[in-house]
Amino acid sequence: MVEMGVPEPEEAEESVQVEVSGADRIAEPEQQMGNHNISPLVEKWDDPNPTRDERVAEVVQQLDKACREAGFFYKGHGIPDSVLKEIRSISRQFFDFPYEEKLKIKLSPATGYRGYQRVGENITKGVPDMHEAIDVGLAWIHCYKEVEPGMYGGLGEVMEGCNKWPSDPPRFKNLMEDYVSRCTDLSRKILRGIALALGGPLDMFEGNIPGDPFWVFRILGYPAVFHSSGKQMPDAKNDIGCGAHTDYGLLTLVNQDDDITALQVRNIDGDWIPAEPVPGTFICNIGDMLKILTNGLYESTVHGVINKSAKFRVCGAYFYETHYDAVVQPVEICVQRSGGAKKFL
Which CATH superfamily is domain 5-337 in? Predict the structure, then answer.
């Protein structure tokens, strides 16, 4: 989510830059972002007619409202809170290691752009982001193979390679692979609810669209750039954890620290909403691919990160995408519901 963005339209640029300097309006999150328990949908995800259950029908309505009005929402999800905490805890252990140790899994073109990235190496709109990261990008689910030579022809050559996992902390690889499997399964179920919300068949976003979905998982560490007094540290290059952007995929699931508010979301009125952590939930947002598939009925939302706390912030961002070589274009039912003309070709 907050780490892999695409350029925004020119008219958004000025507002984005103003927000980074702290001058934009800030709205109350509870007035803008819903907190939805999707357990009924998760329970009935393989039912051919799940909306017969009133609880599922209500979840579908909530999804539609959240996607139309905000594009970001909190999700109670069925993944144990203990798992979310363990992912953040073991990630923090890794980020606490000396740079020399972390650079053993350094990200590079030779690794298919997988591995560790130092603070300031990621750039958003020309400004270095104040975070370090482990980048994990796979083209397999569960026990499928990683991106091997020729798997997607020339189109996928840049992503060929194996994941770079640290040998220390112990169990890091196993925990992350299990977590990604859970997120992949959950994302498919959320998209089934979104398909129903749009009036389409349950599997509207399956088949040729995701097929064997590509996904990216980024484990991010945002250093503190402010003292507890609120004064910026003298050696900090800037206060931008990650510059304002939209995500390019279908869905993003964000697992963030419970006690640090850093993620900010810009709503349709231009207000910036602090996405305050809600324990036991994900922040879920829609990306540009889903915006195109829905012919603009759902909007991908501008967001960014500024860590103004005096603590090191850890976040796990999981990006669910289409099949690697899928053609992303508006689906017919969304074209008809939005005036009959395709807005994206």
Answer: B-lactam Antibiotic, Isopenicillin N Synthase; Chain (2.60.120.330)
Which residues are 96's β-sheet partners?
Answer: none
Please list the residues that pair with 5 across neighbouring strands: 247
- pLDDT for 45 equals 82
End-to-end Cα distance, the chain: 24
Global pTM reads 0.81
pLDDT one-digit tens code per residue, 171-198: 999 999 999 999 999 999 999 999 999 9
**CA–CA separation, 309 and 225 (whole Å):** 8
Least Cα distance to 71 among 304, 343, 287, 329 occurs for 287
> Which of 135, 65, 146, 141 lies closest to 102, judged by CA?
135
Cβ neighbours of residue 80 closer than 8 Å, sequence gap 6 or more: none
CB count within 10 Å of CB 108 equals: 13
> Rounded distance, CA 89 to CA 9, Å?
37
Please count the other Cβ atoms lying within 10 Å of the Cβ belonging to residue 270. Answer: 14
